[in-house]
Give the backbone structure.
Amino acid sequence: MTGIPERFLGRLAGKVAIVTGAGAKGDGFGTGRAMSVLFGGEGARVCLVDRDQTALARSLDYLAEIGAEGFAVVADVTNAEDCQRIAAETLERFGKIDILVNNVGVSGGATPVDEIDIAQWRHVLDVNLQSAVLMAKYCVPAMRGGGGGAILNISSIAGVVAYGSLAYGPSKAALVQFTRDLAVLHGGDGIRVNALAPGHIYTPMVEGFMTEEMRAARRKAGPLALEGDAWDVAKAALFLVSDDAAFVNGVCLPVDGGVTVVGSTEAMRLMSRPG
C-alpha cells in the first residue's frame, strides 16, 4: 500500500517543480517522495533532488507509474555549485522554474550544550537552513524572470516549540524566519514563500528508531489522537504551492494534528485517556 492517490485534478498543470530530499528508504514514502509524486500526478514536471541515487531512481519509478514527467539530479544541496547546477539543469530540461520545495533535512540529538559537537551543529544548520538559502538564491532569478512562483520550506514543529534539540530546533526556527523575510523581499516579484511545520509524522526516516510504544505515546499527545504520514504533508504542500493559495504568503502552517496548540495541562489530560 503506497498511499498514492487514485485520481488527480490537474492543480499543477503546466508547472515545473524542484523538490529536494526527494528520495526515501526502500519503497516507503518520506515527505519528499510523496510531494514529488503528488505534484507529478497533479500535472507538474518535477526535478527530484537527493544525494542517494538509488532512492531517487525509486522515486522516478513511482512518477512513471502514474504517467508523470520528471528527472533526477544527484546533488548535495549544502554545496553552492550543486544548487546552481540543479537550477540550470531544470531550466535546460523544462525551460522554467515555478515551484521550489526545500524539503531536505537532518535531525539532531538532545545533547547538553557543554557536550555539543560544533562541527555537527554546523552540519545540521548547513543542511536544514543554508541549503534553502542556496536553492532560493539560484531559483529566484528564474522565477522572477518567469513572472513569479512559489517557494515552500519544510520546517518542523521543533522550530515552533522547544524540543530540547540545540541544533535541529534552532535550524528549523531560523528556516521559518527565512521564509517570512524571503516572502517580504520577493512578494513584489510575484514569488510567494511559505513554510510547513510537520509534527508526529511517521516516515521511513523515523521508522528505524521509533518503537510501537513511542508511536502510541505521541498519538495520545495530540487532540486528534492520530499519527500523520508523508501524504498529510504532501497534501498541505500541494495547496500552498498551487494557485489555490495565490493570496497566502509568509505563513508557517503546522501539519501536526493540533499538537502545538495544546498546553501542558491539556497534554497531560490527553496522555491519560484510555487507548
